[in-house]
């Protein structure tokens, strides 16, 4: 696991070099602002290798980011996901992984199509803290309200890594692309909070963006700025890979 983390850090550094024109990220390690929440409100969310978030699609399949597992796909059986926990390092139940399928169009430099499907060795047991969620086949509309949840710090800078949630609103894609000098790709969507200063940040990779009980996006924190009036949050667009999910897992 240590080698995996070293690899991810190196990849992150390379990505920052590749996007040198982007603004520097503030020193934040998770969701900024919002409020404390409970896994019972987000029972579909899991942690992947203690570093990223994933989402339960059914009792065997998890959707996460390719960038979270790219260093370990050849030894995926050594890794696990944690379901039903309010913290990302303890509690709930661990499930060993059997298989990892990275999207064929994933690009390590641009992070386009940054998705990975993870298959557990045993079926996930559903309960009040562990359930699946449907994925959307359409992108989040501009102005539509959605909730992002994850383990991160409060706006006062305390790195509590409590489980938090915050409301975001769909942001115009063309404007978002212009804000980031074209680095936002067609497989991504953007969202912003009401005060433009709250939302996911570093180490929130894969945090789910959910509206009306459907998964719309997963936070793409590698290349992009933490939330501000100039820079909305960028998510990987789940609808862009809906057909791939269906063909790979059989889940409609």
From TrEMBL:
GO aspect biological process, one term: proteolysis
PROSITE patterns reported in the protein's UniProt record: TRYPSIN_DOM
Domain Peptidase S1: 31-250
UniProt keyword terms in alphabetical order: Disulfide bond, Hydrolase, Protease, Serine protease, Signal
Molecular-function GO terms, alphabetical: serine-type endopeptidase activity
InterPro entries for this protein: Peptidase_S1, Peptidase_S1_PA, Peptidase_S1_PA_chymotrypsin, Peptidase_S1A, Trypsin_dom
Protein known as: Peptidase S1 domain-containing protein
Taxonomic source organism: Clastoptera arizonana
């Amino acid at each position: 696991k240590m080698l995996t983390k070293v690899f991810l850090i190196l990849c992150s550094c390379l990505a920052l070099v590749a996007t040198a024109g982007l603004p520097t990220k503030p020193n934040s390690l998770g969701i900024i602002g919002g409020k404390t929440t409970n896994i019972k409100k987000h029972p579909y969310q899991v942690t992947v290798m203690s570093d990223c978030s994933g989402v339960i699609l059914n009792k065997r399949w998890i959707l996460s980011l390719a960038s979270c597992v790219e260093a370990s796909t050849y030894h995926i059986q050594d890794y696990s996901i944690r379901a039903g926990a309010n913290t990302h390092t303890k509690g709930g139940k661990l499930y060993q992984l059997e298989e990892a399928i990275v999207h064929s169009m994933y690009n390590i430099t641009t992070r386009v199509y940054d998705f990975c499907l993870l298959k557990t060795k045993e079926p996930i047991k559903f309960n009040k803290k562990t359930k699946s969620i449907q994925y959307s086949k359409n992108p989040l509309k501009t102005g539509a309200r959605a909730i992002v949840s994850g383990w991160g710090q409060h706006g006062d800078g305390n790195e509590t890594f409590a489980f938090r949630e915050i409301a975001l609103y769909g942001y115009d894609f063309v404007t978002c692309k212009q804000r980031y000098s074209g680095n936002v790709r067609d497989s991504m969507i953007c969202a912003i909070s009401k005060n433009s200063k709250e939302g996911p940040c570093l180490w929130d990779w894969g945090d789910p963006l959910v509206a009306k009980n459907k998964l719309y996006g997963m936070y793409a924190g590698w290349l992009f700025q933490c939330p501000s009036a100039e820079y909305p949050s960028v998510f990987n667009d789940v609808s862009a890979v809906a057909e791939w999910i269906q063909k790979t897992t059989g889940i409609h």
